[in-house]
Amino acid sequence: MGVMRFEKEVSAAVAPSRMFKAFFLEAHNFLPKLVPQAIKSVEILQGDGGAGSIKITNFADGGNFKYAKHRIDELDKDNFRCKYTVIEGDMLGTILESIVYDVKFEASGNGGSICKVASEFHTK
């Protein structure tokens, strides 16, 4: 099994606390409304949404993927950080075992935020 790692930073004009809440604490309500052309629904299958929970994202019809099931590995509300693993879904194809995302929102100087994302693609 091999691992490919990618890192990326993106800035936003929204405070880290609001970004974290929208993308991790309220994703099941927020994302389908924000991007209905891409995401049909986000459901919590197991747990309360915190660490150890299992969620499923159902993508909109006509897209490249149907769904992605992921496990919340770590959820740090104080530091606006979430680590989660895609454990099932057609995005994994026949080559990938899992995809691990480590996302952290930090304050930027202008009242907005910087989103730091590390992605690890684990091959079979």
Rg value? 15 Å
Shape: globular
Number of DSSP-assigned strands? 7
> How many discrete structural domains?
1
Pattern of helices and strands: EHHEEEEEE
CATH class: Alpha Beta
- The CATH superfamily label reads START domain
At the third CATH level, what is the topology name? Alpha-D-Glucose-1,6-Bisphosphate, Chain A, domain 4
State the major sheet: 7 strands, antiparallel
Organism: Citrus sinensis (Sweet orange)
Protein name: Bet v I/Major latex protein domain-containing protein
Family: Belongs to the BetVI family.
Keywords: Pathogenesis-related protein, Plant defense
Which descriptors would you attach to this protein?
124 residues; mainly beta; Alpha-D-Glucose-1,6-Bisphosphate, Chain A, domain 4; seven-stranded antiparallel β-sheet; 2 helices
Task: Chart the SSEs and their pairings.
Elements: E1 3-12, H1 16-25, H2 27-34, E2 39-46, E3 54-59, E4 67-76, E5 81-89, E6 96-107, E7 113-123
Antiparallel strand pairs: 1-7, 2-3, 3-4, 4-5, 5-6, 6-7
Keywords: Pathogenesis-related protein, Plant defense
GO molecular function: abscisic acid binding; protein phosphatase inhibitor activity; signaling receptor activity
Pfam families: Bet_v_1
Could you please describe the fold and organization of this structure?
By secondary structure, the protein is mainly beta. It has a single domain (3-123), classed as Alpha-D-Glucose-1,6-Bisphosphate, Chain A, domain 4. The chain contains 2 helices and 7 strands. A 7-stranded antiparallel sheet has the order 1-7-6-5-4-3-2. Strand 3 (54-59) and strand 4 form a beta hairpin. Belongs to the BetVI family. Residues 1-123 form the Bet v I/Major latex protein domain. GO terms for molecular function: abscisic acid binding; protein phosphatase inhibitor activity; signaling receptor activity.
